Amino acid sequence: MRIIRNLNNGWLFKRAAWQGDTDFKDYARVDLPHTWNAADGQDGGADYYRGEGTYVLHLDTQGIPDGYRHYIEFKGANALARVFANGKQLCEHRGGYSAFRVDLTDELKEAAGAQIMVIVDNSDHSDIYPQVADFTFYGGLYRDVELISVPETHFDLEYHAGPGFKYGTRILGPDAKIDVTAWIKNPQAGDMVLFRLGNDLGETVCETWSKAEKKVEASIPVDNAHLWQGVRDPYLYNLEISIVRNNETIDSTGCNVGIRDFSVDPGKGFFLNGVSMPLRGVSRHQDKLMLGNALCSEDHYLDCELISEIGANTVRLAHYQHSQTFYKACDEYGFVVWAEIPFISVMSMDRDAHENAMNQLRELIIQNCNHPSICFWGISNEITIGGERDGLEENLRQLDALAKELDPSRPTTMAQVSMLPMESVLNTITDVVSYNHYFGWYGGCMEDNGKWLDSFHEKYPDRCLGLSEYGAEGIISWHSDNPRCRDYSEEYQAQYHEHMARVISERPYLWATHVWNMFDFGCDARDEGGVKGRNNKGLVTIDRKTRKDAFYVYKAYWSDEPFVHIAGRRYGMRPYGSMDVKVYSNQSEVTLVVNGREAGTQTGSKLFIFKDVPLSMGSNTIRAIGGSGETDTVVFTRVPEAVPGYVMPEETEDCGCDGARNWFDGMDLDSPAPEPTFLDGFFSINDKIGDIFANETAENVVSSAFIRFTGRKMRKSMLMIMGSARLRDMAGIAVGNDKEAVEKMLGFVNRELQKIAK
User: Fold this and answer.
1) Is 696 noted as a catalytic residue in this protein?
2) Which of 73, 340, 382, 528 is catalytic?
3) What are the pLDDT digits (tens) for 538-579?
4) N- to C-terminal Cα distance for the chain?
5) pTM of the predicted protein model
């Protein structure tokens, strides 16, 4: 019978490459999950440790049965991992977000046990994605490690660390069929396979027996099938598959099963089991304050609980393969999931990188194809942010073809960067497409969102269009009576999402929309709004302690749980005699009570604003009461003068040139671009942005170029997000996909950089 042993505890660790030492005296004891970037990956400065870390475990072989095969499974090691047993290298895995297994059978024959050493490396590798992205690449063994022991005859554990079986469902009127395929290693004559389907009470619904062969198929009928209907009714059956020999079960596996069918209509959006279900939800990163990405099961389920509370029915799991625990939780909560690989921001020109993207997609699909929550495979995110590179279209088409080959039952999708033209051929590759738009934050105004979406839909009415990212930063310390774009106030973030929630609700043709982001997350290069090392666009803070006001905007639109929420509570001290009180609610009527006296009742929808509510000097108790009796109470204090602590301090970060003359002043930029030269010992466009910005003069050249060629400044911290990328690969950020403009800017910049010695 299969035996699974957890190996999370008792590891020795050193944040350094292995130097051949064997006593490990200066190693620290750690338990998994573990990352060495839990602190420095979230504190800003773009200086978190990226390199090797060494983990060592003495694996005791007592209790391990003879005649079994033994596999050690690593559920996540970022990004390159080399596994050794008793000094012998057994495996190298390239990719930080998928599981992999190593056969330890021969190494566990020694009675004294085995010494397992894993060298993990999260430094930059030109052949491993992601290359460049707006999040911290936490290093370490940040998910569980297990030892799986199975008899010689067992369900296949070696094929890309998959489960050894897959299933699909067919709905046939009130009934259904579940088609299962399993792969068996070393089946013996007389072996049988039992396929058993149970309901949520553990009762057997149906069972069928087959002869054990290398590939076994079965079709399980389900009378009066109970469908998996997303968040409305996430009903799950349980499938158990067993190999039986001589009255003994020698190996067993299985999963939860959701019976469902779905489709996407370019004019009407998403349908689940024939029922219209507009996909409205959030994106999610997998890190948390002071834990980095080393989350436990409770952390994953807490995230699902918060997503459920807001009333979302879909989650985009950005920008890589997430934990099996979280996919399983999504099955149970009923979220429709977009799962994707980290082919993001810039395509590496390393020939091996494309195979790495293909392999990460292969692992994502094979390891996760049995989750009913997953309905879409994402093949890239903002891959043209630095400009479209030669070979990109072909690579994307190969990724799309691979996804369809491995799993023809699910559509493919991709998230496009905002500046990609609507008419781009890249929008025709996947089955459905979405765009990342930040009108009203990085540029333009809020109203541009609806205009752009309607324009695309009018131009291409037969394409399924979604909104894969949109958002604004909201820092709960900063507040304003007159919120404006990029003031980082909680009020502007809420105002932005009020607008976007309305825009989305008025456009049923959007197949899916995903707020960026459900939670604040770590990006060590960022320094915005007075907060270092974070992307603050979350609806909930990175520690999961505070739901921002914008959270309740969507709860009012999406949730059926009756509630009222008074906004602006963290702006608790007001220096005036009256204030407007804003209330979010999914009720049709809200009553406001001020200092024990009723101040008025309003009927409406989602947003209720009570104007000019009087404030007495000192404390004022304000209570909102919904139509179903739910309440929310906040104390606001009237103070004699404004509290300066509510206003974000003046930005001190250099946005380029530091007041000096622009490097390109006086140059004839209308002339042909200079031919690039690459003198040794001097900076060039082939250097990484981080290396260029380490030199003040070289940094000034690049900052000046952004101003002169685009008419706008670029924050250093935003450019440092791309610090590991070559300047020539990211010039498209400045001038978009106009290849001629990109080459012109690069030509002039390179000429000036070549004058600066390293």
Assistant:
1) no
2) 382
3) 999 999 999 999 999 999 999 999 999 999 999 999 999 999
4) 63
5) 0.94
